[in-house]
Amino acid sequence: MSQTSTKARLAMIQAFANFMDSGSQSATVTFYEGVQPASPAIAADSNSALVTLTFPEPCIKETTATYVEFHPADTGTVIKSGTATWARIYNGAGEAAADLTVGTDISLANTNLALGGTLSVTSIKLRP
Known about the structure:
Helix content: 10-25%
Strand content: 25-35%
Number of strands: 11
């Protein structure tokens, strides 16, 4: 669907927000090194995980006709040194919701993450 009405986009965005807060845990975003899978349906290699950040509940700060904005995530401790190349957002049930390419979809001040270092994300906006 390349063109949808504002009302339809708002409905999709609200459904996405509800999906993100489903489950017993908080939504998270995990940054990975290496090759990004072709889609969120393909499991991520847990050995490539560098750091996981947790969103507050509810995780959605604002919904508009064009995007969903997440609340800032907590600060996470890097569990493996490496270069962050992509990230996956998971809902509160641990289900993959979206993949983001670092440098294209999401920007980091420094993509080279050092073991024991920290990372935080102040803003994520997803556009349907």
